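Thread: "does anyone have the structure for this chain?"

Original post by V.I.:
We have the sequence but no experimental structure in hand. Need at least a predicted one for the grant figures.
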Amino acid sequence: MRMSAAITVWMMLASLTVLAQGQPAGRGTPQRGGGRGPTTDPKAVVTEMQDSLGMLRGLQQQDSVNRVEYWGTQGSASMQGRSYPLEKFRVSINYSVPGMRVDLARSGGREIRVVADKHAWNEETPGGRATPMPAAVGERLLDLWMTPIGFAKAAARSDKTRVAIEGTSLTVTTEAAGATLKATLNALYEPERIEARTGTSVIEYAYTEYGDLNNEAKADVFLPKRIVQKRDGVVTPDLTIEHTNTNNPYVIMPVPANVSAAPRN
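Reply from O.Q.:
Generated one for you, tokens below.
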């Protein structure tokens, strides 16, 4: 009996040791390439990026983050060609059926920008009266794939994804929405800067202060608290996120009939 008990204890300790060795480094212990030095293997780096953002779940490490929302009351955005301070904003994204709704409210005005599949439109209220915006499809889809989770998904799916070491930074380059996207990763493999070049225009996103910002059910999905976008050097949205919902909230963008019937550019 004693020998059997001793063997059982030994097996349990051995199992715990194996499990501990298999755990990734904590977010407070930045490592590249598992402590073996930086790697430029695209699959390995993209997997690290997805894992650091909290996208991979279960024993199979499957990407399980399909829909997110984030909102706040601090920031500014360009609306009708002018920059305004915002009273509040809300962004809803569906990555499975690509679509995004950006709801911006300022003193005396509101603008709701939507894209879904190959259609873009503006709304008076979420899901309300729609005005077709066919010329904005490419730009709005690009904004979706330039979010940290969107970029990680695009990089994981593309066979054109490449990784490089530039100075002290690790960079990932991929393609999405007809553009070449390049991300600079921080020490935790989170995108801290994503740049896209379309024609003569340069679009840049800067992401800082990553954390689990869910105000109710924490999900260990990490999004940036601060988002600053520049188009050709001019700051457009400058947002400070207060809360997120990364537990796959109900997010859909049905294409209105008048938008579907409108001519495309």
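V.I.: this helps a lot. The longest helix spans residues 2-22.
O.Q.: and Confidence is low (pLDDT under 50) at residues 1-26, 28-36.
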